[in-house]
Known about the structure:
Layout: H1 8-13, E1 40-41, E2 47-49, E3 52-53, H2 54-61, E4 65-69, H3 70-83, E5 88-92, H4 99-107, E6 111-114, H5 117-126, E7 133-135, H6 142-151, E8 155-158, H7 161-174, E9 178-185, E10 207-208, H8 213-222, E11 227-234, H9 244-264, E12 270-275, H10 290-308, E13 314-318, H11 321-324, E14 328-341, E15 347-353, H12 362-366, E16 373-374, E17 383-389, E18 398-406, E19 414-418, E20 438-443, E21 446-451, H13 456-461
Parallel strand pairs: 4-20, 5-6, 5-13, 6-7, 7-8, 8-9, 9-10, 9-11, 11-12, 12-13, 15-17
Antiparallel strand pairs: 1-2, 2-3, 4-14, 14-15, 14-19, 16-19, 17-18, 20-21
Helix pairs in contact: 3-10, 4-5, 6-7, 8-9, 9-10
Amino acid sequence: MRAHEAGALHGELGYREPPWLERPADVNALVEGLWSTTSEIAGDGVLVCGGVRATDVAQEFGTPTYVVDEADFRSRAAAFRDAFAGYDVFYAGKAFLCTAVARWIAEEDLWLDVCTEGELEVAVRAGVKPPRIGFHGNNKSEPELRRALQIGVGRIIVDSLDEIDRLVRLTADLDVTATVMVRVTAGVEAHTHEYIATAHEDQKFGLSIVVGDAFDAVERLLAEPRIEVLGLHSHIGSQIFDTSAFEVAARHVLALHRRIRADLGVELPELCLGGGFGIAYTTQDDPRSPQKLATSLTEIIRRESGALGVPVPRLSVEPGRAIAGPATFTLYEVGTTKLVRLDGGGDRLYVSVDGGMSDNIRTALYDADYACRVASRRSDADPILGRVVGKHCEAGDIVVKHEFVPADIAAGDLLAVPGTGAYCRSMSSNYNHVPRPAVVAVRNGQTRLLVRRETVDDLLRLDVE
């Protein structure tokens, strides 16, 4: 990578498009696999999702707005539920959670992962049955654990030895039993961004199998009369496409399972292999179907269990972004455009929209790639290399790093970015005092406001001066 005064984003590519980005034959077309299943283009070029025109969404709710294809969301949830029949399938609340989505998850017969008191309270408000809730987190506070125990969540995923101390105190104080799983680090380097790889030793999650903390934690928990140990929990990362890492993780976790049975005389009934399955943000991504993932993971567990001579435990899985991510696009309005001459020749069109890193931090945080399309009209102009940027006072405020856009894109056009259903609204901020966008569901030609747009008054209400 050559050095460049403007940063690695420019040095890596030398001011050119990446090799995976192809010049489109039709700049008006939707790229297959990147959009929700009900998304289509009307005769006049307007993007339609769930039977609702993007122009109508913008007129009614403004921009930026997260647009959720409810039918697509539900169908993805059902696909994982059916493919992993016999498993407990957990939806990742951290990907995106609001009251309506929690209800959709319950109605589609999925379980729910939460990792804070706030997420837990959303689940309670939505009427999710507490036994179907799993409580994650590497630093759960005593008030959070107390609330979880009072509600009666189905499992608390223990992430540290300190947490065991807290659970012992709280279960005695409340006179309740805590049902737990022990999160372990399996020593696996998942093929994903370093910030979302979670099974190697040098990171904050889990208890080490190699060092022995995981075994010690299980031994201690089994000795506590008010704690029931369901099993072991492993999670190797997020945006995972290759199941080979799951095979290594399963081998290590099941070996610990066998040691617990041999040394402690206890057969743990359950095992969670995590998940974090990847989705297609651009044409360089090739996610597997839920059925292929289920077939592969089930075979891995059967093979590794057989090799180690242990019974196959009851299994759970966490698809992660794979349910919420593809079901949503973000709708922006273009404010300005600027043509920039690149080093070595050629041009790039900078397209500024009315959102940015406050509603999608993933590009800046993870160097994530996204696609986009003009959503309000058809264009007869040639495609030009573009970069979609936000309105914030940061050079790194980039939404879409590399994309071909119509050369006549201009202020007032609507622009849609697919694949923003996971970790965009949930990681959004008020940077530069920008209110967070609304979340709108579309289905069968109808719109439904799920989360209203913040206002400046909302921001000022917290300012005590």
